[in-house]
Amino acid sequence: MASNNIKTVIVIGGGLVGSLCGIFMAKRGYHVTIFEYREDVRSARVVHGRSINMALSNRGRRALAAVGLEDLILESAIPMKGRMLHDLEGRTKSVPYDARSGQCIYSINRNYLNKVLLTELESYPNVKLYFGYKLISVNFDEETIAVLNVKTQKLETHQSDLIIGADGAFSTLRRFMQLTPLFEFSQTYIKHGYLELTVPPQRGLQMTPNHLHIWPRGQFMMIALPNQDNSWTVTLFMPFTNFTSLKNEKQLIRFFQRVFPDSVSLLGEDLLARDFFKVKPSPLVSLKCNPYHVGTKFLIVGDAAHAMVPFYGQGMNAGFEDCLILNSILDQNKDDVGSTVHEFTARRVEDAHAICDLAMYNYVEMRDLVTRRSYHLRKLFDEVLFKLLPNMWIPLYNSVTFSGIGYKECVANRQWQDRTIERLFWSIVLILAVVLAYVYSLWWR
Predict the structure, then answer these.
(1) 3 state SS of 223
(2) DSSP reduced 3-state for 228
(3) In what order do the strands lie in the sheet with 162-165?
(4) Which of 19, 239, 338, 404 could be a cystine partner for 296, CB 3.0 to 4.6 Å?
(5) Segment 214-267, tens digit of pLDDT
(6) Is the separation of the CB atoms in 177 and 294 below 8 Å?
(7) Cβ-count burial of 43 within 10 angstroms (0-12 exposed, 13-18 middle, 19+ buried)?
């Protein structure tokens, strides 16, 4: 990845995607400057923002492997080989992610991963990390940005060969890009929020390990991901109206005993009440825009370009894949930044829009469809054909989670499969009708 054409790069945002993007650029030999608004998570007493666990899958792993970090990260990740479904009676059922080859996804703590990436980034002599710096303004004509040192209140103006916005779903760089002609932008908030709960280590051992646990309840659901200390990070996804209807501890415990009965002893009534009423539920947004660049120097990646609801576990993985794709385009274009940012948009927009839509759909699947017989019949059908025809019939989840196939192509493949099944169904119906007609004719002769 090393480049003989030394360039300067500014990355706005030192989160997961910003840190990894900086590592890719540093390995190219570029001079990299990172501006992060928050304090350094490695030294912060209280880490603000989301702490929800991440599900690392093949796309993210490929990006980490490209910078030599995959093995280190997996040492502290917990494999999850399938979904563990909990019904209203407390019965459980394991549904493997990949019955054919046993591939799995990995539960990883967001803050731990961010710390590892920042430490790796800081190890490069051509990298400068600045915390407590806020992007204030962008001048696309003069190709400059202004950042504010929040501690000293000093405003600084900077230029660079490439300026990358990895500053999250509410990206400041994207907000300025939205003011440019022909920039398309849309965001959708769903009427459901999320709130984190905890199964403590002493009770976490009672849960079946190496699974993503799901309590699907039609219009809402609860999930749990494992941690290294035997605790579980539990996330309740539910309409805001349901959250607001639970006004006190008594109502909350009664609700959980009725809807998630087997979880109460795991969570513990006191801890459940404390966690539930400690903070308000957070909103969930899906965001699309086009293009991902302005001019020849400004580019957005990760959630800044394509924030999505978390139900396919692809938000981080798609962001990491952005970094890998950006790096490969720079290779192909011999470090021509101007042509690279244009090509990145061309290659990434449709795929990103596709995974945003898939993430929305998967919420319906996880909270409702997984309880239906038709879902399990289709999954069995997919698994049988995948085993018989592994290069032709790849189930949607496998293609999204365990391959590098473009997200748009994954959707197109699923649509082809649906049409094939529909044609097969009507062919069988037609054959049966012909057979029955023939038998009927013989009967009345």
Answers:
(1) strand
(2) coil
(3) 127-131, 31-36, 8-12, 162-165, 298-300, 293-294
(4) 338
(5) 999 999 999 999 999 999 999 999 999 999 999 999 999 999 999 999 999 999
(6) yes
(7) exposed
Q: Are strands 144-149 and 105-108 parallel, antiparallel or unpaired?
A: unpaired
The set of residues, in sequence order, having a beta carbon less than 8 Å from that of 152 and lying 6+ positions away, is: none
Contact criterion met (CB below 8 Å) for 363 and 369: no
Strands 8-12 and 162-165: parallel
For residue 152, give the DSSP letter.
Answer: T
Hunting for tokens 């928050």 — which residue is that? 38
* C-alpha distance from residue 103 to each of 81, 97, 411 (Å): 7, 7, 21
Pairing of strands 31-36, 127-131: parallel
Predicted TM-score (pTM) of this structure:
0.93
Bridge partners of residue 138, in order along the sequence: 145
Q: What is the DSSP string of 350-384?
A: HHHHHHHHHHHHHHHHHHTGGGSHHHHHHHHHHHH
- Distance between CA atoms of residues 106 and 225, nearest Å: 9
pLDDT tens, position by position, 146-175:
999 999 999 999 999 999 999 999 999 999
Tokens representing 197 are 């709960």
Both tokens assigned to 262:
């087997």
* Cis peptide upstream of residue 291 (ω within 30 degrees of 0): yes
Cβ-Cβ contacts under 8 Å for 320 (sequence gap 6 or more): 16, 17, 20, 59, 60, 63, 64
Which residues, including other chains, have CB under 8 Å from residue 111's CB and lie 6 or more apart? 41, 47, 51
Cα(203)–Cα(7) distance, rounded to whole angstroms?
A: 52
DSSP structure class, residue 249: H
* Residue at token pair 């509410």: 170
